Protein: TonB-dependent receptor
Amino acid sequence: MLRNLCMLLLLSIFIQQANAQQRSCDLILQGIIVDGSNKPLAGAAIRLSTDKSIYHTDRNGRFNINRLCPGEVEMQINSLGYEEVKRKVMLPANEEIRVQLQISEMHVQDVQVTGIQTEHITSSRHLIKGETKQEFRAKPLAEMLSQIAGVNQLNTGSSISKPVINGLHSNRVLILNHGVRQEGQQWGAEHAPEIDPFTADQLEVIKGAEGVRYGADALGGVIISTANPIHRDKIAGRVDLLGQSNGRGGVANLRLEGGVSSIANLGWRIQASGKKMGNLRTADYYMGNTGVEELNVSGMLQYDFGKHDVELYYSHFGTDLGIFYGAHVSTVEDIRTNIERGRPSTDYDFSYAIGSPRQRVDHDLAKIKWNYAISGETSLETQFASQSNRRKEFDLRRVLADDVPMADMNLSTQTLNVTLKHGHHRIGVDGMLQINNNVPGTGTTPIIPNFDNHNLGIFAITQHHWGKFHGELGARYDYHYFDVAGYRYDYSNIDENGVVRQYLLTDRRDFHNWSGSAGLAYHASSNWTIKSNIGLAWRAPSANELYSDGLHHGSGTYEVGDPNLKSERGLKWVNSMLFKNERIALTTDLYAQYIQNYIYATPNPDSVRQTIRGTFPVFNYRQHDAFFYGVDVQLDWNIAPRFTYALKGSLVRARDLDNNSYFPFIPADRLQHSIKWQYGEPTENYIRLAQTFVDRQRRFDPATDYTNPPPSYQLFHLYGSAQLPIKNNRIQCNLGVENIFNVLYKDYMDRMRYFTHQMGRNITLGFTYQF
Structure:
């Protein structure tokens, strides 16, 4: 009996110990992975010696591994572009694990170009430097991006600009605003992107044809605007204040972020910015009605719980833009006289007032993004976004009041993106529903009709890595359904009073096509990397290219579309060579692109259109096969311990293969270089002298323009930066003098060059306080 009791007691103790051991295998290992600058590394891979699973850090660089047993465990941490780290941890751990990864020399070029992301390992990708963002933070987005070699601007006067990548712009350049494909009335040459640069912590440009990853239209390249993860440890923020002499205006920005103590893993961010400028001035005269007013707000919430990450984002962009008075004239003789004179016939004074003609644009964007870590390297990412773009264009009215818009367009867009990721492979489905409505009551016939646009795409991308070689392959199929209803003029049917009759236009079009991409990156040595990427992309013609027949008030032009246009198909090949050592960083991009059925608007010098509101130059949409090719060079050279020389140059050539001629509005040869002297300890203390040289566009067709391209010009600029101590923090101060010698010049890429010059000398002074 005693023996049985002893056996029962021993068995009870054994079971209790086993249960205790089982219960103890429920430990949690938490931590954060950062880079050499203490910035979180998203997507870093973590392997444990106790199992075969692979864990990944979230967007904040954090990881949370459950169901671990007591004892010693070895962690192996890897991230592309960084040295591998191994660390032993004794569980249970009393505090959060923090691991810092150092840049790998073998992949230093990819780290410089792509940061912590690995999606474009074979593409030509360029990041805007923090120094450039500080100097240009009050400028339009396109002007900031033009500091990258190969990126230019298409201007409408000195206050409206669109980015141009390797000669292509508008609908051929996609912009991702916080992960959402920006959808506004981007078909207009004077419709600037509705994005506040202050919302972007990183601005990147990809020069390849990225039709697979981002869908149709990405023939020229992609611009990516992203924000850093929210820091939840404390209340942090920044204040930006900047004033400028030309326009006698300024810009202000405020941003705050933090966490919620009562709700773990919840972060918030709010931001607001405003701008006000008056009439801008050339070297000799004021440009009447060129003021700008802008007010923008945005907010973000990020919440992580277990395997789920949720992000909510909202932004509102609102602006009033004046359109130069001199572009709107009354008679044929006036327009020809103004083009021949090349400058306004009227003297204007400085004013903050914005009168007609002008634009009022409001763009709202809202998104919800959910990322679910299924297991190991597998995750599912879903994003829904809604955008509303309201564009009003005002002109001088003879019948209705001037505050009634001549054009009132409301574009609403809903997008849904679902992507399944497994390691370096991903498949996804994208859908878009877009509706454009012309709001009635304008008293005019809209330049573009009402339309519904339905898009559906499916894609797959895979990456492979073999030592020094990295490859990427992708394919995509897109289907577009386009349904329009509106009015067009019938110039063969004019009544006895000389009024052109109209007819009801209804049309349905289907567009569908394949896209593909293939790329290879080779790390020849610790200093040299060679990349080659070839991409096939396509674009359906937009509503204005097909159906426009009327006055485009914002640009002061009369546009005529062609309903028989076909889809564009472009094949772009980009070859990049990157060199970097302790003193020199050199990037060279060689590219060539064949575009079948290239669509473009060309001035018709033999025709102007006289309306009740004045007389305007006519632009017709045409279509021919095109061949683009060129080279971009970017060099940074530390010539001495405190002196740095920088050079950026770009050449682009574009040929009309059908007519053996040239296309209009292709950037001329451009060269920028600067010398910077760094003084004091912080790298933010410097003085930089820069020169910009733009050659005359010598490759043009005189039969497709109103006047010859303007002469070449060169400008000199001076920039200075200093960090000023204040209590336990610092204020960064930036001073700039642009166009030091107040040169009177015109730029070929300015659609107002027929009537006016570019902006003259401008002095800027800005302060940034971060806390």
About this structure: The first helix runs from residue 2 to 24. The chain has two domains: 24-103, 111-770. DSSP finds seven helices and 40 strands in the chain. The CA atoms of residues 168 and 220 lie 5 Å apart.
